Amino acid sequence: MRTLIICGALTCSALAGTPAFAQEGGSQHTQAEIKPVNAMCPVGKEPIVPSAGTVEYKGKTIGICCPGCGKQFLAWDETRKDEFVALAVAHREPGMEGHADQDMEKPADTAAITDASWTEPYALNTCPVSGQKLGSMGDPIVAMYDGREVRFCCGGCIDKFEANQAKYWKAIDEQIIKAQLPYYPVETCVVSGEPLTEHGEDIANNMVYGNRLVRLCCKMCEREFKADPKKFIEKLDSATADAQRKDYPFDTCVVAGGELGSMGEPAEIVVAGRLMRFCCAGCKPKVEADPAKYTKLIDEAWQANGKFLPMEHDAEHDGDHGDGHGTGGHGDHDHGG
Hints:
Layout: E1 2-5, E2 22-24, E3 27-29, E4 54-57, E5 60-63, H1 67-75, H2 78-89, E6 141-145, E7 148-152, H3 156-163, H4 165-180, E8 197-198, E9 201-202, E10 205-209, E11 212-216, H5 219-227, H6 229-245, E12 267-271, E13 274-278, H7 284-289, H8 291-304
Antiparallel strand pairs: 1-6, 2-3, 4-5, 6-7, 8-9, 10-11, 12-13
C-alpha cells in the first residue's frame, strides 16, 4: 500500500512484487532455470530463498535459505546428505511441518515490507527514478509504501516507480547499504549476538528495514527481528550513539548551531546510522523533514576527521532486495534477543 503525501492529500496504490534470483559461484539464474529438489533449507529448516543461491550434490540442486548454509550442507557426511536428498524428493524434509500453510512451490518472497511497525525518513539525496537531486525541481514528493518512506523529485517519477518497483527498491537498498555500512556500530548480529564474519569473510545478511541497515547472521534472526523491530532498532540506536558520541565531530547543534549543552543535556537521534546531537528536542523535526541535508553535514564532518569514510561495497553481500532482505551465514546458535 502506497500513501502519497502531497498538500495533505492521500492516495493509495498496490505494491508490486519483486522477482528474486538465485546466485551460486558468481553466476545468476532465474528460478525457472534452476529447480531445487527441496523446498526447505537443509541447515536452517526454513523455506529456501532464491537469492541465497544453490549448491550441487550428486547432480541434484539444493536450495538454501542463507548463503552460509550451502557450505554447512556440503560439509555434512555423505550419509547425512543422502538422507536429506531422499527426504526432499519425497517432500518430507525437516521444517515442512512448521510451514504447512505456505505454498512450498513458491519460496518465501522478501519483496517488500508489509505492515511495517517502524520506519525512518528517506535519507538519500536523489530521486530513485530520475537520479536528480531532491529539491532541484521544487519540494520533494514524499510517499509511503507499506510504512516505508520514499522521496521523488516530481510527480512524473511516481508512475515509473510503481511500474517497476523491484528495480527501484533494489537500487535504493544498494545505496542505503553502501551509505550506512561505514557507520554500522557492531560486528555481531543485533538479534543473536553471533559474529557477522567467519574465517575473515563477511557472512552478514544486510537487510534494509524502514530505510535502516540491519546486519543479521541468518534467516531465523530476520524473522525474530521483524516480530519486534522497535526492540532491536532501539538496541542498534544505543550501540550507534555509544560508538559515535565520544568523537562526535560537532560541539554545536547540527541544526541551529547553538553550543551543545547550552540548553541542558543535548538531545539525540540516530538517522540513517548517524548520531545527530541537538541543542534541544525542537530541532529534531527539522532533520526528519530534510534528512539528506543533515546527513550530508554529518558525513562531511566525520570525513574531515578521517572517520567513517565511504567504502567500496561488494554487491555480493547486499542480499535480496525489495525491503532489502538478504541472507547470511547460519549456525546452530541461541536466538535470544
